[in-house]
UniProtKB/TrEMBL annotation:
Role, per record: Catalyzes the formation of phosphoribosylamine from phosphoribosylpyrophosphate (PRPP) and glutamine.
Pathway connected to this protein: Purine metabolism; IMP biosynthesis via de novo pathway; N(1)-(5-phospho-D-ribosyl)glycinamide from 5-phospho-alpha-D-ribose 1-diphosphate: step 1/2
Class of enzymatic activity (EC top level): transferase
Source species taxonomy: Bacteria, Pseudomonadati, Pseudomonadota, Betaproteobacteria, Nitrosomonadales
Protein name per the record: Amidophosphoribosyltransferase
GO BP annotations listed: 'de novo' IMP biosynthetic process; purine nucleobase biosynthetic process
Note on cofactor: Binds 1 Mg(2+) ion per subunit.
Catalytic residues of the enzyme: 2
InterPro entries: GATase_2_dom, Ntn_hydrolases_N, PRTase-like, PRTase_dom, PurF, PurF_N
Amino acid sequence: MCGIMGVVATTPVNQLLYDGLQVLQHRGQDAAGIATAEGGRFHMHKGPGLVRDVFRTRNMRNLIGNWGIAHCRYPTAGSAYNAAEAQPFYVNSPFGLMLAHNGNLTNAEQLRQDMFLQDLRHMNTNSDSEVLLNVLAHELQAASQNRYQVDPETIFQAVKGVQRRVRGAYAVVAMIAGYGLLAFRDPYGIRPLIIGRNDTAHGPEYLVASESVAIDTLGFKVLRDVEPGEAILIDTQGHFVSRQCAEKTLHAPCMFEYVYLARPDSLMDGVSVYETRVKMGEFLADKVRHTMPHLDIDAVIPIPDSSRPAAMELARCLDIPYREGFVKNRYIGRTFIMPGQASRRKSVRQKLNAIAQEFRGKNVMLVDDSIVRGTTSREIIMMAREAGAKKVYFASASPPVRHANVYGIDMPTRSELIAAFRNDEEICNEIGADGLIYQDIDALKAAVRELNPALVHFETSCFDGHYVTGDVSNEYLEHVEAARAKTGRSEDDADSAQLDLNLVQSD
Ligand SMILES: O=P(O)(O)OC[C@H]1O[C@H](OP(=O)(O)OP(=O)(O)O)[C@H](O)[C@@H]1O
Ligand SMILES: NC(=O)CC[C@H](N)C(=O)O
Ligand SMILES: [Mg+2]
């Protein structure tokens, strides 16, 4: 996943985009970029690192104009530390286009070939987002039939072309020079995208972002989610138009957004992410009650940050004290979205430290939102024991993660996933717990659906192996695994790149 944002305002947007990126930082810690426009010129600055490290005052000064887009990256395609893959991406023709993408295309390789052989387009990175931009450029070129002025009809036509050709997950913000902001979402609405509006004395301003938290904090009002398959256009004068561009849609938002990716204070598909996590806690408590009735637990302890709402509710429903047993170092980022297993493992220890008094002589139930590679759970259980816990039970607010994710979460190889080839008992042994309990998939779906019954389908492939877009075969998954092994984006490479980056940053 990544964080994306686009804005058309009545005053300069550089600070607004920077502040918004800070709020979306949890969606991507690898690279960041901002592009703005004024008087037919684009201005851009992007690079590897956290938002606060990428932008200096001198960069901000150059980002002039009242409209722009921004991106923070958590890579899924291409390589982790290639600065060239930071977004937004730019092509000069037709009109001049900038694009930022959240998601992952499942037919990027085919498209890359088509682009080269049929459309004679060169791509300079391994990023699927660059492919997506070039498809958009090609379709816009075709729809505009060499007219030098672009209008909404032509743009919608181009997005329809993109929807026809591109497979996978994509939430997109793009700038079209001479027109304004374009935003669209894939026909399944896998990755989130929401619109906000701010009425000023000089007219309305619009903001499109991955999560509503950006809209709230920047003083806009949430208007609505961008519909799956829908494209919206806001010209530089603030005129808003929208159109359904997909032939067929099936709303199936990514379940992992509710479980872990999104901030709890965000609203997605009309549902509070926080409330879904509380519900997950309630349903997990039901399962604990039924499957482990004789458990003797002194305290329920969350693994900060994401599991807190679920752990709190689980404790309340089981009538067991909820205690904070780990303190989080607020200066360490999210470990799951860090590339490289060694840096993730080290970061867990740097990030979380046990409060010994909360563990000494006690039976504890640790709660996390998910167990993916098992890095966090393994380390945390060891820490609880080192702190003197008698028994350590582990509960996961989501089911075992057994399958690769191909829609924008970096879980492409099954060999990395602790649950891929193990049953619950083996996983329990592997993480060193005295007991392990997982949420059921139906309970997880119910946790979100109870809050919005209109949400019938979900993208839950990492839990159940069902890929909503219908084009993900076993051959494709094996191909992705093999490509990952071959491109050398190995865990070790990512680790050393992380070190290099840190050295550069601390210079
Ligand atoms: O099994 P693993 O591979 O370790 O992945 C799962 C863990 O990673 C995430 O935490 P993270 O530290 O990324 O973020 P958080 O502070 O938002 O919980 C998630 O909340 C789990 O704790
Ligand atoms: N996680 C994402 O959404 C990443 C977007 C894009 N696939 C990239 O690798 O940069
Ligand atoms: Mg966590």
